[in-house]
Amino acid sequence: MPMEAFAIPDARDRVDGAVDALVDESIDEFSTHALAEDLIDIRRSIDRLEAEFIRRLHRFDRGHGAVAAGGVSTVSWLRARCGMTVKAAAYRVHLARTLGELPATLDSARAGRASFSNVTMIAHLAEDVGVEQVAPLESILVGAAETLDPGAMPPSPRPPGCGSTPMACSLMTTTPTSAAGSSATRPMAACSSCVGSSTPKAAPW
């Protein structure tokens, strides 16, 4: 029987220590500029930890960890053990099951290259059109997630006749104009639902 691997607590201890240091720090004399820098750094760290949570949750869910622990489902386990609402738990399970099939996307968020909000939009796209359709375009979508500002991948008006959700059509038809970090976008291939439409596949944007 293979020996079960257990997580080494050192990393968690260091995270707890870093959080404790922030909690214990007096901010009374901080300038607003210093606070702004702290807020940016803390938010980025939260996003990275959220992405890491999703990676581990995917492995836990796939291995039926909740059932092994005596729970009914992963959602109910998250409610009981992580203090989440049903909605919050179900959303994270959904993200874990989707992003677990898009490892490059999740790795980008874990490394802090892409904002977690942009990465979740890729997950929503995968839900709309299917992971199997998104996977071949993952590198393009990750490039957009890494180069566009957080939340700057909004649904755009769809070409008439497109049957996809606005988010799916928008993400499937735009891509950064430059891998060097330009935030501009340009039309790409039509989204899957635009194909076969009698209307133009992608109007000039």
Q: Top keywords for this entry?
A:
mainly alpha; 10 helices; globular; 2 strands; two-stranded antiparallel ribbon; 205 residues
Q: Please give the largest β-sheet.
A: 2 strands, antiparallel
Tally of strands: 2
Spatial ordering of strands, largest sheet:
1-2
Compute the CA-based radius of gyration.
20 Å
The number of helical segments is 10
Which descriptor suits the 3D outline? globular
Terminal CA distance: 59 Å
Helical proportion, percent range: 55-70%
Strand content: under 5%
Low-confidence stretches: 155-160, 175-189, 195-205
Order of SSEs: HHHHHHHHHHEE
Mean pLDDT: 80
Strand-pairing-aware structural class: mainly alpha
Structure in words:
The protein is mainly α. It has ten helices and two strands. It has a two-stranded antiparallel ribbon with strand order 1-2. Strand 1 (174-176) and strand 2 (185-187) form a beta hairpin. The longest helix has 31 residues, at 32-62. The radius of gyration is 20 Å and the shape is globular. The model is unreliable at 155-160, 175-189 and 195-205 (pLDDT under 50).
Helix and strand arrangement:
Blueprint: H1 10-24, H2 32-62, H3 65-68, H4 74-82, H5 86-99, H6 103-110, H7 116-129, H8 131-134, H9 138-147, H10 166-173, E1 174-176, E2 185-187
Antiparallel strand pairs: 1-2
Short account of what is shown:
This protein is mainly α and 205 residues long. The protein has ten helices and two strands. Strand 1 and strand 2 (185-187) form a beta hairpin.
